[in-house]
Amino acid sequence: MGAMEIAGLTVRIGNRVLCENLSVSIPPGEIVTLMGPSGSGKSTILSHICGTLDRQFEVSGAIRLAGMDLAALRPEDRKLGILFQEALLFPHLSVWENLAFGLPSGISRKERRHRVEAALADAELDGLADRDPATLSGGQKARAALMRTLLAEPRALLLDEPFSRLDAALRDKIRQFVFDHARKARLPTLLVTHDIADAQSAGGPIVEVEVAGQASQQS
Ligand SMILES: Nc1ncnc2c1ncn2[C@@H]1O[C@H](COP(=O)(O)OP(=O)(O)OP(=O)(O)O)[C@@H](O)[C@H]1O
Question: Where in this chain does the record put each ABC transporter domain (predicted)?
Answer without folding.
Answer: 4-219
